[in-house]
Fold:
Amino acid sequence: MADGRFAPSPTGALHLGNLRTALLAWLFARSDGSRFLLRVEDLDPSASRREHERAHQHDLAALGLDWDGPVLRQSERFALYHEAIDVLVEAGRTYHCYCTRREIAEAASAPHDHLPEGAYPGTCRTLARAQRAAREAEGRRPALRLRAGGVTVGLVDRLCGPYEGYVDDFVIRRNDGAPAYNLAVVVDDAAQRIGEVVRGDDLLATTPRQLFLAGVLDLPAPGYAHVPLVLGPDGQRLAKRHGAVTLAERVAHGDTPDAVRAALAVGLGLAEPGEEPSPATLLERFDPDALPRTPWVLPEALAA
Ligand code: GLU
Structure:
């Protein structure tokens, strides 16, 4: 048994790529007899997040994807995240970082002997008290970074195979005081006892950080299956400009939710064009080893 989850950020409507990831996460969990949990990743307050959250749940239900137990909301769990941050601070694993976004971009693009592109080069790692005070006097508010010590962490992804990545000193508390995504995800996946994380492969590159953090916090590490992204008919990453790519838009075009699920299933090799298998039938057919490992290019008919 490996409990699974779907953890969308309520920043907009789910598009067919997100729905395909949700379908896969559900298939991975349910085909194994495991629980499937829903988590709302709303670390960023926004007036419309409840509306998006409702729409996400409506879409999943319309596609026939059910979930267990109450939905978890990150906005209600800050105390837990701050507890984990305190543990790291007390263990001497953190430091304040005063760098602006621009300074980080500049520093990260400068050539460093051994750092991969985009990695934080540790500018604030050894600031003296006076240097910190000077930055605070300028009105800068610090983010908190984890001292990772330049380790490389590897994993064997269920779909992508062996992968390893350098772990930089990543942010665990943002400079607005909110917990950072990587921290919240690690705390929540452990708290929800997630056995296997199924999500888009745009997050594969940050997974070594999450595994490292789970280790430092002495939390169990889940397995991972990173799902290839969906591309628009033009070969670019799927986005709004590709046309009618949300469930509501497809329905407005005359598709039923069953037809949309069927189209996703065809793209996963789980259905023939023209048939509309039920979720239960998809579960019977599901074989993780037979899943396509390359991005799915949306057929023209599904974006128009
Ligand atoms: N909330 C993230 C997203 O919507 C997903 C994070 C995860 O699955 O770990 O992209």
Summary: The chain is about 35% helix and 15% strand. Residues 31 and 284 are 8 Å apart (CA to CA). The longest strand covers residues 152-157.
